[in-house]
TrEMBL record:
One biological process term in Gene Ontology: actin cortical patch localization
Protein name as catalogued: Uncharacterized protein
GO cellular component: cellular bud neck; plasma membrane
Highest taxon in the source lineage: Eukaryota
Organism ancestry: Eukaryota, Fungi, Dikarya, Ascomycota, Saccharomycotina
The species this protein was found in: Wickerhamomyces anomalus (strain ATCC 58044 / CBS 1984 / NCYC 433 / NRRL Y-366-8) (Yeast)
Amino acid sequence: MRLNDINTIFENKSHDDDILFFYTVTKKIEDVNDARGAKIRSISIGTPLSNFVIFKHLITLTIQNFIRDGQVSHLISLFNTINSIDISLWKQFCQANNNLQRVLSLNSEVNNQLVFPKLKQLLLNESQTEGIRYKSGTLQYYPTYTPDDPQDKILSKIPINLSLTSPSSTFHTDLNLTIPILTFLKKLSMKLNSTNYQNFNIFIYSNDSKDQLCQFILSLSNFLNGFNNPYFHNDKILYLPLIDLSNFETLLKYDKQVHNTKIIGTNNIMMKENFTDFYDFWYDLNMEELFMNETKLELFDVSMTKTQDFINLCDVLIKQHHDFDTVSNTMIKFTIYEILKILKRDDSENELNLKDYYLSRNKNLVFFDWVFEFKIIRLIDTFDQYFKILQSDQVEEMDVDTLYECLEFMIGFLVGNVKGHLETFIHILEIFPVNIQKIDELMMKIHSIIYSSLFYFKIGTYKNKF
């Protein structure tokens, strides 16, 4: 399959400020004097920040005071405390360095030695950032407002931590959910071999913590190109962290009009039996069991044959207990590895959008749309040609011409006026897979260009031949 045969062009816009997230903490204590047998109080924070979990400790402390005496002053103290935190410096950093943050997530040692010390020094010398501290790749913001109520004064002592190494659109969690997410992705990928790829409705059920269920679904969106970003057929995935019978009718009406993928959390087991005409998959998060609704899905007579690469990679990541950044960057590396295989195929159905081809044929679920931009695909293809020639023991005249063409494209990519190209170039260079024989080799630095002897020695060798 030739690169020019596939449509890779799509509209790439950011609408992060169009989404408002409401983060709610609810507390219940038994009370025989209450008609319901318990006091129930909830506090919600509305924010455009996708890392809204940073407010969790502030809300939790406030709701404990509020449910104890019912004084509205606790709520006023909470919102005054939050509104006193000026995060404009962090927002400016993220907006200016969105592509750089992908590079920063790769190597904490280099970041701590070269990048972050300069930022730390800047903060120490800047009088306007007195309430900001640097710590291990994060900015710590302390509130400038101190509540009058002694019970609420502790709010001013609790910093919020904002990551410098993760794009601001990434959903953060205070729970370690990488293994549950990888387990789900592995099981769903295995089931997709038996069905025609389409937009799915997926219920994720848990009878344990609602907090874990909601954070699981939002964290899952980091790997499935969530919210305003396009997925299969350029549709967007609708994520509903928690829904019950009381608000399900509205979703049913929406589903009749819009047939995009929906991933829905619920703690009501009755929905499994009562809404079989709605969902395609039901996943029990506690038992790690996936049920495929065969009455609703279009199934193949014979399961589609595909490689076990994605499943094997999930197994390796689960076994080795990696953190979120490592898992995310490995999945990006795997996506590049898969794209290279697609470009080598002799496939007559070349009118497919490359994104849809990747999802429908490879059925690997995890998807990062920025990798599928036309110039990024060109860069990936160029790297592949360039380093294959460098690996060769003999360089023909035709190969030299190809090398010059590759160099010309790379130089054009770097010197253009498109913001973020330099950072993207470095990021892909660091994770670009070479000499992969087994899928677990994606985890080894020696199979990345920038860490291999190929990068350091052979470039100079062939440079002399030119």
